[in-house]
Design brief:
- The structure is a homodimer of 207-residue chains.
- Chain A is built from 9 helices and 6 strands; from the N terminus they run ααααββαβαβαβαβα.
- Chain A has 207 residues and is α/β, with parallel strands linked by helices.
- A 4-stranded parallel beta sheet of chain A has the order 4-3-5-6. Chain A has a two-stranded antiparallel sheet with strand order 1-2.
- Chains A and B meet through helix 1, helix 2, helix 3, helix 4 and strand 2 of A and helix 1, helix 2, helix 3, helix 4 and strand 2 of B.
């Protein structure tokens, strides 16, 4: 069914265009693209026009914060601008979505640094493709006391973690920590993988 | 996680806008909306602008064919315009996507009629909400010899089928048929539901 819309010569040009455009998005095949297109007909013209404008404007105007690489409307993002944040702590994350997951907890008051991915020789991502030098510059500036590495536990994530730890060794006064690994709240032990359980037992806490 | 982006006061306005817009689409939650937004940053500005234009133009300019209710750029759709199609046969489908599935086979040479849904008292869809009167007008015009009902086998589909059969009885010269039900090619008997198997055995063919 993937190529249904390709085979149909007598299809509305407008419908062909929009399904091709939607199908450019990740995880959206031709069939879902058609379903999304049909849904647009249930929305009023103004709200679809506003959707179109948001898409174009986002791509054209969005910036990366020149300090932390977070997405931003200005040169510096709202978090880096906020004078209430603790400027001695930087939490390093892979991507912007991770930053928002941490922000949603409303518990972390430090700054962030968005790497923009993880080191992956397989996918051709070298350390120089990530915002690592920018992180080092921020630390070299001297205010930072702690760097929290909140990187995923994939093979690429671990590679990135070790690379960062090596680079950070040149600042012995800066504490380097990693977010705690363990059993998530609400997770049932029965379904948790062995590595996580092993780690959780080794790092048990006295009550 | 559903409300992550709502809680973040210090998020880029552009990013907030676009994730809200994507989240209006069916089956797309906040998290997927964020993933789609991030993907736009990997496309060039022009191709995102072209996506935005297609979305706006589609909603603004698409029409429904005044004969068969298919989506169309003009008042009459390309299929109804095509003088090579057999005008004595109409295949009735629920939605435009069904029409394209049949067109993809390149076997059917008649015309279509898109109902725009099925009768569903539960969802408040009455016969008058569907393009049934338009179908009757086409048949009343006199050229039609056969109406093929290609309606799904859901409860609502069956209701719609019986309703249509009743309405069509006033044209005794018009043959009314339904698409064949049976075991699909490639389906394994082991996994086919009982109703389909029962039907397939009752309607067995001599070889």
């Amino acid at each position: 069914m993937l190529h249904v819309t390709h085979k149909i010569k007598k299809m509305s040009k407008l419908l062909q265009d929009i399904t091709s455009e939607f199908a450019k998005l990740p995880g959206i095949g031709r069939r879902t693209a058609m379903r999304l297109s049909m849904h647009l007909l249930r929305l009023d013209t103004d709200s679809v026009a506003s959707m179109a404008r948001s898409i174009e404007r986002f791509r054209r105007d969005i910036k990366h914060c020149r300090h932390c690489n977070n997405l931003s409307d200005e040169e510096v993002c709202p978090i880096c601008m906020d004078s209430d944040r603790d400027r001695t702590t930087i939490c390093v994350v892979e991507q912007v979505a991770d930053l928002f997951s941490i922000e949603a907890t409303q518990q972390y008051r430090g700054l962030y640094h968005v790497l923009g991915g993880v080191i992956s020789p397989m996918q051709g991502v070298a350390p120089s493709d990530l915002k690592i030098d920018l992180l080092m510059e921020r630390i070299a500036a001297g205010d930072v006391r702690e760097v929290i590495l909140a990187i995923s536990t994939s093979v690429e994530g671990e590679t990135t973690l070790f690379y960062l730890m090596n680079r950070l060794r040149q600042y012995p006064d800066v504490k380097v920590t990693s977010i705690a690994r363990g059993i998530g709240f609400g997770d049932e032990l029965e379904y948790v993988d062995e590595l996580t359980i092993t780690h959780a037992i080794m790092n048990r806490r006295e009550l």
